Amino acid sequence: MNEDHLKIWNSIELIANSNGLTVSGLARKAGLDPTIFNKSKRFHPSGKRRWISMESLSKVLYVMGMDWEEFGRYMKMI
Question: Which pLDDT value is given to residue 54?
């Protein structure tokens, strides 16, 4: 499960970078708080993993013109 957590977050970074964006720029483009994808927000202070919400991920996919299948391909690249 820890591997999935890293793959999801790394896929977000790859999507951003592949489109000439920072993760902050990607978040803004999706109408989200620009800090939502910061590395510091990927874990709770207790060390527990923080997962991206389906709503936030859906917004990213929508503005990037991607579907879930394409997101899966990004995850396989990691």
Answer: 96
